[in-house]
Model the fold of this input.
Amino acid sequence: MLKVANYKFWFCTGSQDLYGDECLANVAAHSKEIVDTLNKSGVLPFEVEWRPTLITNELIRKTFNEANNDPECAGVITWMHTFSPAKSWILGLQEYRKPLLHLHTQYNREIPYETMDMDFMNENQAAHGDREYAHILSRMRIERKTIVGYWQDRDVQERIAEWMRTAVGIVESSHIRVMRVADNMRNVAVTEGDKVEAQLKFGWEVDAYPVNEVAACVESVSASDVNALVDEYYDKYDIVLEGRDPEEFKKHVAVQAKIELGFERFLEEKNYQAIVTHFGDLGSLQQLPGLAMQRLMEKGYGFGAEGDWKVAAMVRLMKIMTTGKKDAKGTSMLEDYTYNLVKGKEGIIEAHMLEICPSIAEGPIQIKVQPLSMGDREDPARLVFQSKTGPGIATSLVDLGNRFRLLIQDVDCKKVEKPLPKLPTAINYWTPQPDFYTGTEAWLLAGGAHHTAFTYDLTAEQMGDWAYAMGIEPVFIDKNTNMRDLKRDLMLGEVFYR
Done:
């Protein structure tokens, strides 16, 4: 089950004692007001906590180290109300280890033309102080997010909210543990990767378990627990028999209920938040986990098929980053299947054999039981549905041998033109930006995989900020992409990120 800590973000204001106690009192009052307004805005997903004004080297260093050691602190928001000499920040910044936001704002929205004097100028000089601070951040090569604008404006608050979700993803990345059931699909390249380097870069732990160790946990699930979950399925989803005997159909569904309960208990007992399976190694399992994996993804677990642990971790990460988001439309693993190449109607069918998260569904969700050639097991039950429409992003984390690259593509999800009555899978259908041909060519050139971690609820900017924080190369494919510039950017990335 998806559990995210009750995170807070510290608001740290920079100044100095050059301007006297009255000025410092005003600085503190102003920063408290900003914090209070942000918290009452209803826009931010996490609380902002005011911290005393930072005016000395010692206090800055102490505050940043306290932030490092506070498990509820997911990041620090900094703002220089007045002029804060940047050398005072060096030691604190050198030792700081969490996400950092530089909020470039000022207390007053408008210049007070009639009353402004030198006291006002000395007290309200973020335009001055933030440049000093930004310089030392750049000189020290400190990765940070910079947001410019007035603190009462909703667009600024929304950007802070987006950064908070990214910051939580950065912090939570080191808590992701992926359980691999069996190994990578034989001879497949793009789903492979360096697990040691992934732990160094992202903090992910990726471990393998024999399938029959998990299957034993599945077998231990009681009949009463299985029956209760099957009843939940039958209440929640549309049952589509398609000529099958109702009792025989229900037995197939019960197998997936047993797999869901057994796998979830194993994951909880061993403290894993993401899982991969592989149809080539099912041990004593009666079916390839289908409906069971769809349900676990909906509960917040990451999933990757055919041993794809990178996608499993990314799905988990993106579910963490979207936790509690109002009107969320969903996050799932997807796979590129087949194209529509009719001019003016180009698109890509996104699906998988079984395992697409129902969080992205729109309209009724059906349970079907259909044969599956892969896995050599009995016909698995699965959830079948159409996905929501609207903009989303598809991401692919690929291992290039000497480094990781994160592809981030804007896509436009739409309805398929005609029904697919013989396709018993959940599907999404999209056209990549800037258009099908350029977007697809760019994806191929950059080495993107056929499995993606997809979401409606994050932006390319948020995932790019996560990649920058991890020290890996983000590649953006969007409405502005053209192949000449992309080729140049990929060549530059080879030099910069090696």
